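tool=predict chain=A
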Amino acid sequence: MYSKIILPIFFALFLATHSYAHEMTPTYPKLTQSYIDNVYVANMKLFNRRSDVEFYKIEVFTNDWKPLPFAAVSKVINLKYSRSKLFSVYIRAEDSEEVVYICTESKVFKALNQVTLVSSRICSKIKQNE
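tool=predict ok
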């Protein structure tokens, strides 16, 4: 009997809440030769739709979600709410065939007035040369 009452209330509360994540474009970036020999670059744009988060960590993964080494001006981006930022991810030529995902993950810091503890990860899949 309780399940007939509790489940509809749970789903109503779940549907009434808003969940926002950040955005990253392009969805399918292409690696291009950078100005440095044997290094490729992917140019990305990050948009912060979360008012409770200001820091995002850049990550690069293989198809099996194993991390790969990369370079960027900063591996953690400080981005205010409703703002966007362009950033570049540099990948060695020897890793260019293995890289599949470039991701950004929101970094939620513990605070006394923190409303949410939900972290979000957005990934773009590398468009492989055909």
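The first strand starts at residue 23 and ends at 25. Confidence is low (pLDDT under 50) at residues 9-18.
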